[in-house]
Amino acid sequence: YSDYYSFSEENNQINDTYTEATNIRVGGEVNLNPFKLRAGYALYGSPYKDNPEYETENYSAGVGIDFGGTFFDMSYTLSKKSGDYVMYSPDTEPHASVNSEKHYLLFTLGFRY
């Protein structure tokens, strides 16, 4: 292929911008037949070299009930993120200081067959 393009400039930019991130998740369930109680925690590390504080924390709780062939689950998750945010490259201005909280409420109705 005569028009081979190596993407070396793009790959170098990716290597300069991003780093390894550690993600930690832990959770548990208590079975109080027919009820189930669940809770969890997750920490998603920042993939940005210049902004290691830009991580996300999730806290979750849920309850479920099993009716035999049918089940109903409900869960709530609080997702928190804070840190500096730059829209394009870290060298550009302005930087925004971001503190966000997102709330998720999920319902599931399932049928076993």
Q: If strands are numbered along the chain, what order do they take across the biggest sheet?
A: 1-2-3-4-5
Overall number of strands: 5
Share of helix among residues? under 10%
Task: Please give the alpha-carbon distance between the first and last residues.
Answer: 54 Å
How much of the sequence lies in strands comes to over 45%
Q: Mean pLDDT score, rounded?
A: 90
| Class from secondary-structure proportions | mainly beta
| Tally of helical segments | 1
Task: Please state the overall shape, judged from the principal axes of the Cα atoms.
Answer: elongated
Protein architecture, described:
It is a single chain. The mean pLDDT is about 90. With about 110 residues, the chain is mainly β. Helices cover about 10% and strands about 55% of the residues. A hairpin with a 2-residue loop joins strand 1 (about 25-30) and strand 2 (about 35-45). It is elongated and about 60 Å long. It has one helix spanning about 10-15, and strands at about 25-30, 35-45, 55-65, 70-85, 95-110. It has one domain. It has a 5-stranded antiparallel sheet, with no helix packed on it. It is built from 1 helix and 5 strands.
